[in-house]
Each structure stands twice: as structure tokens, then as C-alpha cells.
Amino acid sequence: MDIYKQNRVGQASRGKGKILSQNPAEETRYVKRIGRDVTNTKKETRFQWFFQRAEMPDGQYDPETGTGLLCIEELSKKDKGIYRAMVSDDRGEDDTILDLTGDALDAIFTELGRIGALSATPLKIQGTEEGIRIFSKVKYYNVEYMKTTWFHKDRRLESGDRIRVGTTLDEIWLHILDPKDSDKGKYTLEIAAGKEARQLSTDLSGQAFDDAMAEHQRLKGLPDVATIMEDKTLCLTCVISGDPTPEISWLKNDQPVTFLDRYHMEVRGTEVTITIEKVNSDDSGRYGVFVKNKYGSETGQVTISVFKHGDEPKELKSM
């Protein structure tokens, strides 16, 4: 049996008993593929996949090429066990077994961790409502087989009152809350996988610090209620990202928005914008965008108050 790693364009590299290394610049998705080539088959020959003695209906078999294939996406420890490929017909049966436990599984996760570390993008700096965020995107992250450490001016950082560190399946981040001048300087992320380690650094000073602080102050000052004069055009924009790509729903007063007549939605890359032409008092209300994928969901909200010509803008007392 062989294990493969497949990239998004469908090309596969093959190696006996392990997942091969990958150019970190490529766009990849990690899939464990267990395959077996079968010869001397007949039309009636049956090919079956088993895991822990239970048949796996998702297994594939191509009678023309004699290739049986089982793909497991998002490999985790629940996939630990014994895999069996069996062919059978009126002449009898034959099988092959792969023991994916112990060192074999550890070796796969270690290799995936190494590939994930190599895939890490250069550190980026982002101003947020709470402070300044420094992060790197990765194609894969496993908390059991990959370790991360942050440093500021070569001093190791830990989560505390003003510092937050964390990871997701595709991101490693550091969040500095209520940033101060003392937070300026060089930041380094160390990613360790097995015996290998990779370091990424960025300088949070000068223009980089000023730009992040300006964005932080801008976001920190955003109102919960926005006002607009009737007959104007209202645009609400949010930036959305995720893998898999999230589903997007716009709501008004907790009800789905119908995009007809004056209401329009436009998607440009990661930016999603709702536009309302010639607003009137009926357009006042609480607007929200709801996004979700299989890893979770988030909601962003703002209250819009439409005022008439000649009136002073007022915040809505209630919705």
C-alpha cells in the first residue's frame, strides 16, 4: 500500500509508507490516500475497503485500471487503526493490510507538521479594535505535533493581561491589547515540528507601528449606530475569509435581507458589500452579516438610523 499527498490541481506525488515533502509555495490540501493496484481481475471481481473490520463505503475502485483508492481528508487520531483492502470473486479472495498505528501514524503527523511549518506565510501586522495583531497563515496546523513560540526582542512571550497567543487550523497569531510604545520592536515566531524548526520575524516599529495604531484607533472609535439622510445611498462592507469559504447571510432585524429593487449585494474577493439605494425611514434598523463554515460562525452588526431632510440625525432609541 502507498500513501499519497495530492495538491489542488490533482497532481500526486507518491512514496512508500509516508507522505512526501511539498514545495511550501504551492496551494495544497492535505489528504491521506491509501491505494492498491490489482491485476488478474474479472468483471465479477469485488473490491472492498475495511477499517477496524468495518467496511468503508467511500472507498473507490476502477476495474479498468485495477486501482483501489481510499481518501481520508483532514487526517486526525480518530483515523488510527488497521486498514484492509480485499478483492474477491469465485476464485477466492486476497487482501492487503496497512497498520496505521503507533510509529506509522506519528511519522505521518510529523511530516504533515513539517509541511505545515514550511507553508507558513511571512508575518503580517494588522490593527484591530482591541489592539494590534501579528499573524501567519499556514496550510495545516496540528497542536499535538506542532509547537509555536513567540518572542519580542528575543524575550519569550506568554499569554497574559495584554498579550494573547493562539492558533486555528490555518493561522498562528499574537494579539497585543491596548498597545503602547514599549510594544515596538522585533517580533519572532518559531514553529517547531519534530526535530525541525522555522523562524519568521517582523519589525513592529516606525511606519508599521504607526499604521497599525491608526487602524486600531479608527476601529476603536466606530459607532454602534450610524445615521444617514434619506434618499442617499447606504453601503455596508465587511471583509470575510475562511477555508472552506464561509456561507454569507445578511440580516435586517434578525430577518434575511431580500436583494431586490433598491437592495444589492456585491462580492469582490474577501470584501462583501450590501448597497441600499435612496434610503428611507423603512430602511432604519439593525443590520447584521452572519458567516459560517464547518468550523464555526461569526456575526457582525450595526444599527442604521435614516433621518429626513432638514432634521438633525438622531440615534435610534430602540429597534
UniProtKB/TrEMBL annotation:
SMART domains: IG, IGc2. Transmembrane segments: none annotated. The keyword Nucleotidyltransferase does not apply. Pfam families: I-set. The keyword Metal-binding does not apply. Residues 217-305 form the Ig-like domain. Residues 1-21 are annotated as: Disordered. Keywords: Immunoglobulin domain. It comes from the Eukaryota. This is Myomesin 3.
